[in-house]
């Protein structure tokens, strides 16, 4: 037979069904909670000084005999590390015709996309501090081992860092990859000889490793030097400071001659290294 | 990294032996004092060179994978 009337022939009557728009919001690891964060909204000034006392150690304490006048002062120092707010901006213009023609609230959805990107950028800035730590473990061409983790903890401990506030930020490959942490913990007999422990790891029932949360950040570079080196880090909270001033807002302005709405998202923060010895640069081979 | 830090002016750094003006948050190839490659934001380059002994550019010798 021929000349059947198909849906293609009736194209003018057959509409496309528009699905609900998918927003690819940027995944973040929540590092803001694990650094020393200060917000100064409402306080005049754009620079915050993070004060840091010089160390006073056991070697500064002297045993003296009864009745002996102790005459040596320990000079106490305090240096400040300044964090001056920087602005970060992303903007778009949605024409009035685009807004009126759209089924969804385009401006609200663009705002959500911008807010998500802004938080990812702040995380990107924080993990960008990793290579600046002088202390290191593992290495660019080296696969991570259990010893690397304990060596990082040892270095922070030696500098009197707070081991209760440790955290690790790893790239996705450094966690999930064949040479990543999960693989290391499951495959290393010495670290994990029991089947129960292995199953627990496989089922994702372990939130902390080596006494610290291992956070996976998409913002950590995996192409440092060559294509398969990741710039991870281990630190304790006081190693990094984050100064914010009303972290982020989104503003709208109508442009009559352009017949559109300008959408401007502004983030205000500055990330800074406070104590070098409380962080460790954990570059490792991932592939 | 869709956005760039908005600051007054740019920062002059040396990349591949040539002076270039870049945004403060552009990541610049450097060599860590231990010899590992490192990418650091441009605003830190000067401090890392003078305070911590970093060198500009990636290490010339490619590390052997282990």
Structural summary, described in words:
- The complex is a heterodimer of chains A (287) and B (66).
- Chain A has one domain: Alpha-Beta Complex (phage-related protein like fold), CATH 3.90.1690.
- Chain A is α+β, with helices and mostly antiparallel strands.
- The mean pLDDT of chain A is 91.
- In chain A, the strands form three sheets. Chain A has a five-stranded mixed beta sheet. In chain A, strands 1-9-10-4 form a four-stranded mixed beta sheet.
- Chain A is 21% helix and 30% strand.
- The longest helix of chain A is centred in the middle third of the chain and has 22 residues, at 106-127.
- Chain A starts with 35 loop residues before the first strand and ends with a strand.
- Chain A has helices at 96-101, 106-127, 146-158, 172-176, 181-187, 195-202; strands at 36-39, 47-53, 78-84, 86-95, 166-170, 208-209, 212-216, 229-236, 240-255, 260-273, 279-285.
- Chain A has six helices and eleven strands.
- In chain B, 12% of the residues lie in helices and 38% in strands.
- In chain B, the strands form two sheets. Chain B has a three-stranded antiparallel beta sheet, covered by helices on one side. In chain B, strands 2-3 form a two-stranded antiparallel ribbon.
- Chain B has 66 residues and is mainly β.
- The model of chain B has no long low-confidence stretch (mean pLDDT 84).
- Chain B has a domain at 11-56.
- Chain A binds chain B through residues 86-90, 117-118, 121, 124-125, 128, 131-132, 134, 136, 139-143, 221, 224-226, 229, 231, 276, 281, 283, 285, and chain B through 1-7, 24-25, 27, 29-30, 32-34, 36-41, 44, 48, 52, 58-59, 62-66.
- Strand 4 of chain A pairs antiparallel with strand 1 (4-6) of chain B, so a sheet runs across the interface.
Give a quick set of tags describing it.
heterodimer, A: alpha+beta, phage-related protein like fold, 4-stranded mixed beta sheet, B: mainly beta, two-stranded antiparallel ribbon, 1 helix, 12% helix, globular
């Amino acid at each position: 037979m021929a000349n059947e009337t198909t849906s293609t022939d009736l194209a003018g009557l057959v509409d496309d069904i528009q699905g609900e728009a998918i927003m690819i919001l940027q995944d973040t690891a929540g590092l803001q909670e694990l650094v020393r964060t200060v917000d100064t909204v409402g306080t005049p000034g754009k620079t915050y000084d993070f004060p840091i006392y010089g160390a006073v150690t056991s070697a500064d304490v002297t045993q003296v005999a009864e009745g002996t006048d102790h005459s040596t002062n320990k000079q106490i120092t305090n240096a400040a590390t300044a964090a001056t707010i920087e602005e970060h901006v992303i903007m778009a213009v949605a024409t009035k015709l685009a807004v009126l023609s759209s089924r969804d609230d385009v401006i609200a959805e663009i705002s959500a996309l911008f807010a998500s990107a802004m938080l990812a950028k702040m995380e990107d800035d924080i993990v960008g501090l990793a290579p600046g730590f002088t202390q290191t473990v593992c290495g660019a061409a080296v696969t991570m081992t259990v010893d690397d983790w304990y060596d990082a903890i040892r270095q922070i401990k030696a500098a009197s860092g707070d081991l209760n506030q440790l955290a690790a930020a790893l790239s996705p490959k450094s966690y999930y990859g064949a040479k990543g942490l999960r693989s290391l913990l499951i495959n290393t007999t010495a670290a994990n000889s029991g089947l129960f422990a292995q199953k627990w790891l496989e089922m994702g029932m372990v939130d902390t490793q080596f006494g610290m949360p291992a956070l996976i950040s998409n913002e950590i570079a995996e192409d440092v030097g060559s294509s398969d080196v990741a710039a991870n880090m281990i630190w304790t909270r006081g190693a990094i400071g984050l100064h914010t001033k009303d972290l982020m807002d989104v503003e709208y302005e109508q442009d009559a001659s352009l017949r559109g709405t300008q959408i401007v998202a502004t983030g205000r923060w500055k990330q800074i290294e406070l104590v070098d010895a409380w962080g460790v640069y954990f570059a490792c081979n991932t592939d | 990294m869709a956005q760039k830090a908005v600051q007054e002016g740019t920062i002059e750094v040396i990349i591949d032996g040539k002076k270039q003006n870049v945004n403060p948050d552009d990541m610049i190839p450097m060599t860590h004092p231990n010899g590992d490659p490192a990418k650091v934001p441009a605003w830190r380059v000067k401090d890392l060179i003078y305070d911590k002994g970093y060198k500009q550019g990636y290490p010339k010798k490619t590390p052997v994978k282990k």
